[in-house]
Amino acid sequence: MDERQLTIYFTSDLHGYIYPTDYRSADEKDIGLFKWASQFRKDGNTLVVDGGDLLQGSPLGAYCHDTIGSAAKFAEMMNCCGYDYVTLGNHDFNFGMPYLESYLDALRGKCICENVRREDGSSRFPARVQVLENGLRVGLVGIVTDHVNVWERPEHLTGISVTDPVEAARNALRTLRDRVDLTVCVYHGGFERDLASGRVLSETSENAAYRICQELDFDILLTGHQHMSVPGQMVRGTFVVQPSDKGQEFLCVTAERRDARWHFSSRTLPAGGACRGRWLAEFAEMEQGAQNWLDQTAGHLAAPMVPDTPLRMAAYGSPLADLFNSVQLEATGAQISVTSLANDPAGLPQTVRRRDILNAYPYANTLVVKRVTGAVLRQAMERSAEYFARNADGSLCVSDAFLKPKVEHYNYDYYAGVRYAFDCSCPVGSRVAELSINGKNVADTDVFTVCLSSYRASGTGGYECYVDCPVLKEIGTEMSDLLLDFFRKHGDPLPLVRGDYRVF
Predict the structure, then answer these.
(1) Can you tell me the distance from the alpha carbon of 214 to that of 200, in angstroms, rounded to the nearest whole number?
(2) Is residue 192 within 8 Å of 223, Cβ to Cβ?
(3) Contact 242, 226 (CB under 8 A)
(4) Is pLDDT at 1 greater than 50 in this prediction?
(5) DSSP structural state of residue 470
(6) pTM to 2 decimals?
(7) Average pLDDT for the chain
(8) Is there a smaller number of Cβ atoms within 10 Å at the N or the C end of the chain?
(9) What is the distance between the alpha carbons of residues 486 and 330, in angstroms, rounded to a whole number?
(10) Are 51 and 187 in contact (CB under 8 A)?
(11) Which domains, ranges and CATH numbers included, belong to the chain?
């Protein structure tokens, strides 16, 4: 009787969270790679796999890039934890190919990312076959969302192209099928449909995991990118899972061959327990360097900027959004600035350190100035107004459109340099009840200069209306550095442009 087993420890979207800290306080937290990697029980029939988005997103990631200039230390940390395979996430390209390659060159595990192609069309990180100690032959294919092409600066993709992930996976599966006993796809992307009902939740190609289950016949699909926990389940004949982000949990996936059939199961295991002392000691100098760097004072505020719930901040305004928009307006000279809410809104203390800025604005966005008509501006605002819904008692709540299939508070935008109002009693698409600049109502044919993050300028998040707007200027400096410069230049008080809007 053929009874063989494969165990996979799967992580994804670590975003530079390695040590058990959230970088907001000195207290140890149940978070980060080292917090739970000691739970891995590895043998010849076990694989440790990561789904990408490792290099960017935490203050440690920013420190590593800005001061060390190499990602090799991240590879050494992954090596300690026994990773066999990794794929790439969209944020792994944020600092360019040389930086990414400094990580991959030092990584003992293999990178698989079938749809990252060389100039000659060949796969830069092709599929692999792993023969386990028990004789099982496992075919592993990695792919990344093709929205890398939408979000990433072209100079960061020098020498490569990112092709359609589904087609790349299809072609790789075709070559593997007759050579292996079991197939695994590691996809840095998530689900575009509700898994219970199959209802379409997104029409873009950013996430295509459901389509992969529909059209391909991988045995196991390991997903990421969406920062949401998906427990193990069968979808169209494929066993799927997804962990949450920042090292808050990992997945233990088991495939057992019994009675000529595969049986799949998984456990979602939260971060916890003790970190291995030798791991902490080995990278202690880097971690302490990061902590010292993060503790550098950036500036002062007259009073702390205290965060509130995302709903209240969206409805009643955010001093942090005012700060971001003020920085963007000064850096670009645009008439209007647009910035976003966050899933986990941060504040700023009265004495602002570098870590506070990086916690408040963790991503490597740059700025883009576009020429935008009044009609496009109104269309974008209507998308932001979709954020609101009403409970049965008439009170405001967050629309399911921003909560399912994943929480997307970050797709709600604030606008500065313009006065506006959202009437939530009106149907979606007809909620902008007021829109004026300098006391004049905005007409569809009016033209303005609008500053956006590089992420939003790509049209992501339901803002496709921006895509065809002409680009007038690009600011290549990351937003976190612009914030630091703003504090250094102005001190207290900061010249803030207040948001002028109401929601009713």
Answers:
(1) 13
(2) no
(3) yes
(4) no
(5) P
(6) 0.85
(7) 95
(8) N
(9) 9
(10) yes
(11) 4-290 (3.60.21.10), 296-503 (3.90.780.10)
